[in-house]
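Field: COMPLEX_INPUT
Field: COMPONENT_COUNT = two
Field: RESIDUE_TOTAL = 692
Field: MODE = joint
Values follow.
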Amino acid sequence: MSTLHKRIAAQLGAAAVPGEGHYPVDIPLVCVPCDQFNEAARTMKYAEARLVAEWASDETPFGRGFGIHALYNRAQEFLLVRCLAPEDEPSFPSIYKKYVSAWRFERQMKSLMGVAPLGLPDPRPWIKHEDWPPNTWPLRKEFAADRKMERIKGEYRWIRAEGEGVYEIPVGPVHAGIIEPGHFRFQAVGEEVLNLEARLGYVHKGIEKRFEALSWEDGVRLAGRVSGDSTVAHAIGYCRALEAMTGCSVPPRGLWLRGIMLERERIANHLGDVAAICNDVAFSFLFFQLNILKERIVRTNYRLFGHRFMMDRVGPGGVTMDLDSVGIGEMLAELDWFEGEYGRLVTVYDENSSLEDRLRDTGVLSPEQARELGQVGIVARASGQPLDSRIQAPFPPYDLLLPRMTVLHSGDVHARAWVRIEEIRDSIRLLREMLAGLPEGEVRTPCGVLEPDRCGLSLVEGWRGEIVYWLQSGPRGEVNRCMVRDPSSLNWLGLEQAIHGNIVPDFPVCNKSFNQSYSGNDL
Amino acid sequence: MIRILHQIFRTGVVTEPLTVEVEAEVVAIGTQLEEAIRKKFRRSLTIRQVDAGSCNGCELEIHAMNNAVYNCERFGINFTASPRFADMLLVTGPVSVNMEIALKRTYDATPHPKIVVAVGDCGCDGGIFGESYASLGRISNVIPVDAHIPGCPPRPADLLAGILAVIGR
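Field: COMPLEX_OUTPUT
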């Protein structure tokens, strides 16, 4: 029994019952009475666990109301706490006072599933906009997915600042530049930002509801389009949850090829991000140079995998492509060339004093803030949090080839850039080892049939950070619920705090250093 | 500084080596594009890109059009921050219900004559997201569209070819 599990058993006694039908079995599920849900959160907080995600599921097809879930983590231990809310006027005690990040999770649960978090002081909708009719809860089973949404009059109540010289800057949803849509509201005095509030949900396409209309096999295509830049990581997340539920064991070669694609995706996106950070402080030399490298990487993807971003190359039970020895040789040769070019450019970054001047001490997210806000991925590692699900919840080949974690403590734009720079180096090392040790054999195996009323959970470290999938099968073995938690759902909170006290013109570079997904957040 | 200069000279011009098939394709398309842009838009085609609900895949490829390899600016194509300066709206989709109003406003803010190009499978027909309570599907369900560039996502060369097809006619 894990420490977290022991703690909750000791605190709640007989009220905490081990749950069944949840996979993988090494992540325990504990069912608690609804009124003990926040007591469980308190216990977890005192055990120094972080809140990974909180979500609801409609379980009325099983005649048991709504499931409320909270996933906790400390080091390599995970624990899923679950309670049931009644079918009529479902509610549950809010855990917002223990975990700040629950603030948005619970608003989202209320907006989309209609389960009320008791004690949450913020009544505003999240993801769903205020011009949607009241009592429309799209994630409920009774809600028809093709329903035409009518609009009502409504206004979002922004957090306001008052005083002499305080002014407000509204930005978006259509931003300057080629970027996803979202709205940012700044309160500022002179150049200094007093507060920033993000209002997202503009690209809400009903992804979680859409999963329920697709077969398990087709769902992976949708998972690959939750956030186009993380298509490999999301597809692996979906597949691993599904494989856990069906007990499918993916052939080693398939697993290693997934690892190769995941690291190539990391390199390409990190290159683009470091390039864009340099561009936002007008250092266009590195912007163009690093983007040339990125273009070479995605072209090789196209040649060897048939798609520049490797979309639809991961499927349930394995992968849908294979690498021959020529492809492996080509990739290894490219890595040799790449490493030299990349090393030269990193030296330029490192030695440039004007870059240093702009990037250091800009957009600082302190380690305390990062911990309190439950940050994950590159943002967390740049602010002193040693979190990487390749290490915390490893799957092959990462159980053999341990990634080297880069953890910095300054939490500024430079730290977030440098974590990426070091991770590219480590991905090159991992790729070489994966290519050298690639096992022989099949790349895919049939996934098996799904039993009714099973749940599967998976965690995958995409380039942005930890991606969580939770799947549940319905009474006929169909998709009952597919919960997606992109790292962005947590890390947008970090950006809002990191910008305090910075000047308005530094917002673009701060935003770029986080580079969170709008689509992955809005679903 | 010496390192920067050294790297610039080492790199040379990456835009024009004709050895790779794709690059040949780019230049061929680009030369045709340049002519069309010179004739119809007095040397400059200004594009406002609007993400009306995309997964960000199409945006990555539109970004790539600006990199040194594709370098779309050499053909007179540039991207603007304001729809008021735009000749063309490059719209990715599907149009989400929450972006419908913003997309219509952007369309209205773009001066006539304007060209609207729907990008990506989702922009062309709703893609895997289809039409639902949250998604209005294809771009042409919301604003008039002049041309489509399908693909998931379309490659930068496909994007250049698609833009040529619409302004060349």
